[in-house]
Design brief:
490 residues, elongated
């Protein structure tokens, strides 16, 4: 516990002392405690934790909150508060701890769950819960048994959240009310479900079939939690993979730092407006975030060059979609996102790259990401020019719909932004430090037209200033300000 802040150590010590005080009545000579039930439940909780510790490394056990909660809540229903608190201690001390300080976290968790179980047992007993369980030939009293069980779940959530909020305030100086607001709402639903499972366990435990029958409830519940944890572990691994790849791009191309995440958010807005299912929405988020991953294969001198690119440098930059596709080829969960990474610079009129696809031959994900990419490029402040207002960016997208962008995607983004807006946080500066444009052609980046004659069309000085968009003709006097495909850092 040497690395634990002094205030956090004080909180842990106070929780331990309170937990000990709560368990003392169990050892009083005149207190009837069903020790057989307490020992069986403690052993069951310890077994669940031991199984969780043997799950694959790098992820949590079946229930991330500590011990298997239906066992703890069943103990709160079947035992007096002092004995229920004791049941929580063994499994909490034996549970998996992911981060140091390991000893402090185990001790804190044991004391926290002991107090939480004691509070749930007190709430359950105060509403006459033990009398509703049946046993001794009497049938359980349903639905009256649900009220004290729900009250116990509420007490469990409140005490658990309050203790977490206090220790976070002590260890990280996080405001208590903020922690309660963040932690309590997501906890209430799962704790209520666990309480119902614990209630069924308690009813079966008191029934003529005895404790063995309770496993008919606990075992399927435990397996469900295990599968759920496996799913979340896989999702966490996916997110970690994405974060690592995006971080690598941000380090290499500091001009567009934060751009990938915003393109992912804009892609999600479009996808939801189009009515895509959750799986495809998540895929599009990944596609937007990773659309520029191929820049890892582009030489840094090209990415960070000030001034216009040479024709040879431009050809190198235009390979980044293919590099990106090769980088993510073996990542199975990306699915359709791989097509978006490869084709997000194709144009509807066939003048894009890398393959000059046109119309419906361009994958749907790529057409979504192309619009999101261009929108963020125009509305983000870069080191060489200021952001354009959202209405101006939308007007430019609409002007180019049908030639460069899919009108359906542009319309979906327009409707989504009218409904949800685009916050200032989404249009922050994307480069580490502002830098003035250098070279005689640099100002042309914000005064060039959007139209293109295709990959083999005429190329002026302004075309060389772009980093990864289709070639464009020489600038015209009536050109709009910084069209969506003119951003050399996109």
């Amino acid at each position: 516990m040497s690395g634990t802040p002094a205030a956090a150590r004080a909180c842990i010590l106070a929780a331990v002392l309170c937990a000990i005080w709560c368990t003392l009545p169990a050892f009083a000579p005149d207190t009837p405690v069903p020790w057989g039930t307490a020992v069986l439940l403690a052993a069951l909780g310890l077994g669940c934790e031991a199984a969780g510790r043997r799950s694959p490394s790098g992820g949590p056990g079946p229930v991330a909150a500590g011990a298997f909660l239906p066992v703890l809540l069943a103990a709160s229903f079947l035992l007096p508060p002092a004995a229920a608190a004791l049941v929580a201690v063994g499994g909490s001390l034996a549970g998996r701890v992911e981060q140091p300080p390991y000893a402090a976290r185990r001790i804190w968790r044991a004391a926290q769950l002991a107090l939480t179980c004691a509070a749930a047992s007190w709430a359950y007993a105060a509403l006459g819960g033990p009398a509703t369980l049946g046993g001794g030939g009497a049938a359980p009293d349903f639905p009256r048994a649900l009220l004290p069980a729900c009250a116990a779940a509420l007490a469990f959530s409140l005490v658990l959240t309050a203790l977490d909020a206090v220790v976070l305030a002590a260890a990280e100086r996080r405001p208590v009310l903020r922690s309660v607001h963040e932690l309590l709402p997501p906890a209430l639903g799962p704790h209520l479900v666990h309480a119902l499972a614990g209630l069924m366990t308690a009813v079966l435990w008191r029934s003529p079939y005895g404790p063995l029958s309770a496993l008919l409830v606990l075992l399927p519940m435990y397996l469900s939690c295990w599968v759920f944890a496996q799913y979340h572990r896989e999702q966490a691994a996916h997110r970690a993979t994405i974060r690592a790849l995006v971080h690598a791009v941000d380090i290499k191309d500091t001009y567009t730092r934060g751009h990938s995440e915003r393109v992912g958010r804009a892609s999600v807005l479009i996808a939801r407006e189009l009515g895509m299912d959750d799986r495809r929405v998540e895929g599009l988020r990944f596609a937007g975030i990773l659309h520029d991953i191929g820049k890892l294969g582009v030489p840094t001198r090209v990415l960070r060059k000030d001034g216009p690119l040479t024709p040879e440098e431009r050809r190198i930059m235009e390979l980044h979609p293919e590099y990106g596709h090769e980088i993510v080829r073996g990542i199975g969960f990306l699915d359709e996102a791989r097509d978006a990474i490869l084709h997000h610079h194709e144009r509807l009129d066939g003048s894009g790259y890398p393959y000059g696809l046109s119309g419906s031959r361009i994958p749907e994900f790529a057409r979504v990401v192309a619009v999101a990419d261009a929108f963020d490029a125009m509305t983000s402040t870069r080191s060489y020019r200021r952001a354009r207002p959202v209405p101006a960016a939308l007007a430019e997208l609409k002007r180019c719909a049908g030639s460069q962008f899919d009108p359906r995607m542009v319309g979906a983004l327009d409707r989504a932004l009218r409904r949800h807006g685009w916050s200032e946080a989404d249009t922050a500066v994307t480069a580490d430090e502002p830098r003035e444009p250098q070279g005689p052609h640099a100002p042309l980046e914000s005064h060039t037209p959007l139209e293109s004659h295709g990959p083999r069309g005429p190329r002026g000085a302004a075309a060389g200033a772009r980093r990864d968009a289709p070639p464009v003709p020489r600038a015209r006097s009536a050109a709009p300000l910084s069209g969506p495909s003119r951003d050399r850092r996109r």
